[in-house]
Design goal:
The protein has 24 helices and 22 strands. The chain has an eight-stranded mixed beta barrel with strand order 13-14-16-17-18-19-20-21, surrounded by four helices. Helix 15 packs parallel to helix 17. The N and C termini lie far apart (177 Å).
Length: 633
């Protein structure tokens, strides 16, 4: 007996049959939707014909494999993001839509000092420094809501309580519906950057050693003072101050001691000025002071007070140092109506103070400034005079007092200035000594004299000894003896034709060095003379040890002969003393027959002066040598 078919089973079979037919017809398209790997497609193709159930099982398997792969990729991506956030130098803070902190990174903890557990759920306002007004934050939020981004600088507070500058960038994260989901803040600590900028700004306006304003800042202060001063007729003074012989402290005791002294002087100056006055460091050991509301008398008293304060002893490593200062002063408005002119005027007055012997003060004078400008121009031109062939020598003959015979000459320096004409040493030697150019000029003079002697010998003439006056610096130069030896040998000039003159004061300054140097020069065969004798102070015992050939009597004692009895007595004493020590005497500056006759009566050996001849160019002196009748040597 046949049973009635089960309708549920028939439905299942029918659905399965339909799905199998559909699977066979459309499986390729369906597989393409779920499978992206060739080997997976091969697997499904192999089970395609076994029926829908088997294929479905295979498809489910592959879907599970693919899901695991995506989950692994997502996990790795999250792990990478976490690692990046943990290692970047910038702090990161994420808040929710209600501005509660939901995440921070390690840099946030390092910069702020707060641990993540301490800030989760907190409002970022917990970091606020309180230094910025509410209007600042209202502006920040208004822009953030309008543009979804804000960037700028903000002051926040660390957990320690320290306030620090922060470079901050905030971005808004919105969902698909446009609603705010999160805020992300990325920030960096700008403390070092700010400190570096502040250091740069400080160095641009202040002296790093003393902390005083520098020259440019001082000029700005003057200009700020001038504007109200021009309206209310307020007078003020600019002082330029220089420590006397500060270079000796640096060279003798080291720059550390010198720097300590400069810092001490800065503090001393600050201690004596008023609250409205300004003290600045100009350069090296030079300072500038702006004095307000003081008349000339008050300024003078103040300058004296500064000198007294600066001259107080300074102790370094148990050693007490004493020093002085020089000051130049310029008044507004008579000495200048702008900062640059006033500082220049004060510096000009300072230069005159130093040239007048230092340890003093002086107000600016327009006439003196003109002379200072001329000195600066001469100094600049002198640096290039030798290279440009502008230096030349004139020769003044020296004659025997008894017979008038030509016995020698003195080489005298001249400068053929391109604008001022022929200048005698009185116009530029002091400048050369002050600027240190005297050694270079002295070396040129030595070489030029020996070259000239060589040329005269080569021309068949019989030159007389030529005297050169050595500066103190040149006489003290360590290589003097070697230089003289080398030049004489190179030019093949007999040493006896060169006479070196040193001043009496130079000879007395360092007895041991002088005696040793003179002995070495004499070994070369060079003759020596003491110049300007009588103008200094000589010990008879020391003179006896000086193995020189001549004493040259200073022309200041010759000028009043024979009328001045005191000069007469002095000259006679010098000649008698010289002869007793075996020295030859030569009088310079002889201009009259009466002077010559008096000197002959006193026993003077040689004469130099306008009475016989003025200094003359080498070519003219060469004529005298051509006419010379050699006498007994």
């Amino acid at each position: 007996m046949l049973r009635k078919p089960n309708m549920a089973v028939l439905k299942v079979v029918g659905i399965y049959t339909v799905l199998s037919v559909l699977w066979i017809l459309y499986s390729d398209s369906l597989l393409a939707l779920f499978v992206d790997q060739p080997e997976q497609m091969t697997l499904l193709q192999s089970v395609k014909g076994v029926g829908f159930v088997s294929a479905t099982a295979a498809l489910l398997y592959l879907l599970i494999v693919r899901m695991e792969s995506h989950l692994l990729e997502a996990h790795n991506a999250l792990k990478l993001n976490s690692r990046v956030l943990s290692n970047i130098r910038e702090g990161v803070m994420v808040t929710d839509a209600d501005n509660r902190i939901v995440m921070v990174n390690r840099a946030f903890e390092r910069i702020t000092g707060h641990r993540q557990q301490e800030v989760l759920g907190q409002n970022p306002s917990m970091l606020s420094s309180g230094r910025q007004p509410a209007a600042f934050y209202r502006s920040l939020w208004a822009r953030l809501l309008e543009e979804d981004h804000w960037q700028g600088e903000i002051l926040n507070r660390r957990k320690s309580g320290d306030i620090f500058p922060e470079r901050l960038s905030i971005s808004t994260i919105r969902g698909r519906n446009g609603d705010v989901e999160h805020y992300v803040a990325i920030f960096s600590d700008a403390t070092e950057e700010k400190e570096a900028q502040e250091r740069i700004d400080f160095l641009a306006h202040y002296d790093p050693l003393t902390g005083l304003p520098n020259r440019e800042t001082f000029k700005q202060r003057i200009e700020e003072t001038i504007h109200p001063a021009s309206r209310t007729d307020i007078l003020f003074t600019v002082l330029s101050l220089d420590l006397d012989r500060f270079k000796l402290i640096n060279e003798g005791m080291g720059y550390a001691v010198g720097d300590g002294l400069l810092r001490e002087i800065a503090q001393r100056l600050l201690s004596v000025v008023g609250e409205s006055d300004v003290v600045a460091r100009q350069s090296g050991d030079e300072f500038l002071i702006l004095l307000l509301h003081r008349d000339i008398q008050q300024t003078t008293l103040f300058a004296e007070k500064i000198m007294e304060t600066v001259s107080q002893p300074f102790t370094s490593d148990g050693q007490e140092l004493s020093f002085t200062c020089s000051i130049g002063m310029a008044r507004y408005p008579e000495d200048g109506q702008d900062a640059a002119t006033l500082i220049q005027a004060a510096n000009s007055a300072l230069s005159l103070t130093k040239r007048s012997g230092r340890n003093g003060y002086r107000f600016h004078d327009a006439g003196n400034q003109s002379r200072s400008l001329e000195s600066m121009q001469l100094e600049h031109g002198l640096r290039h005079a030798a290279a440009r062939g502008e230096l030349l020598l004139h020769y003044q003959p020296q004659h025997g007092a008894r017979d008038g015979r030509l016995v020698g000459a003195e080489a005298l320096l001249r400068w053929q200035h391109p604008e001022l004409g022929l200048l005698s040493p009185g116009h530029f030697i002091a400048i050369a000594e002050e600027t240190g150019q005297i050694n270079e000029i002295g070396s040129w003079l030595l070489e030029e004299v020996i070259r000239q002697l060589h040329d005269w010998l080569a021309a068949g003439l019989q030159p007389v000894p030529v005297a050169i006056n050595l500066s103190v610096n040149q006489f003290r130069f360590p290589s003097l003896v070697q230089d003289v030896r080398s030049i004489l040998q190179a030019r093949e000039v007999p040493p006896f034709l060169l006479c070196l003159e040193i001043t009496e004061s130079a000879a007395m300054a360092d007895a041991e060095y002088t005696l040793a140097t003179i002995a070495e020069l004499q070994q070369l065969g060079v003759s020596l003379a003491i110049d300007d004798f009588g103008s200094g102070y000589s010990s008879f015992t020391y003179l006896r040890q000086l193995h020189v050939e001549k004493l040259k009597i200073d022309q200041g004692f010759i000028r009043q002969l024979p009328s001045d009895a005191r000069d007469h007595a002095i000259v006679q004493s010098i000649i008698t003393l010289a002869h007793s020590l075996g020295f030859i005497t030569i009088a310079e500056g002889v201009e009259t027959a009466a002077q010559l006759e008096t000197l002959r009566e006193m026993g003077c050996d040689e004469i130099q002066g306008y009475l016989f001849a003025r200094p003359m160019p080498a070519a003219e002196f060469e004529t005298l040598l051509s006419d010379r009748v050699p006498g007994p040597e």
